[in-house]
Amino acid sequence: MTPEEAARRIRENEEEEEEERTNKKEEGAMSIDRKTMKKYANVAELLVHAHVDEHQMFPSWKEEHALLLQTLESCEKIRDSEEEKEKIRSVFDIRWYADLTTRFHLNSFKVEYPVSASTSSSQGDFRAMMEHTLASSIRTGASNGSAIYAYGSMFNHSCAPNVNVAWPERNHLVEFVANENIKQGEQLTIAYIDLNEDWSLNVAKRRAQLEEAYGFVCECPRCVSETQN
Length: 229
Known about the structure:
The chain is mainly alpha-helical. It is built from 8 helices and 6 strands; from the N terminus they run αααααβαβββββαα.
């Protein structure tokens, strides 16, 4: 799916949601509509995912899925209706949960930003800032967390990316900033792995990490060049 098609789908979903809000009646109990459930069950369908057969699923996925169904079926408008429970089970089945989980894994960004701009021992000392952030996170229980961005998930990976990812406002708002001059028509890339780690200097370790986490062997210019040398 191209970025243009994805943007169109996003706009269509937003328009449908606005129309539903406009037409929604506030009075009376409403039965759960299967079409509506399907729509919200498929909110992440624009994102790339990996197909996982049931025998390949982690046991924890099945446990989490069972807890999710139990929670949904305990809702006031559902718990006393076997028909409504069956709708829930048919829409939010284990296949849906596995697809959604892989989408989250493959497309989520680890949101990282320092606790404060003054925590670095010297200007530009990124490692010191991040170490302070980690220590503060452990001490306070705070966590930056993870996030998914519809357009951001369309970037391909490179071990020498031409785009940096940052959260300058220290919130959920992300910025994608070019770190070099980019020619018209040149592909924009980001790094799927932490290139600040010492192990990332080894091409074999980078490729192994990417293959394990994302299912592909990296053939970016940097990896190809370092393999040939």
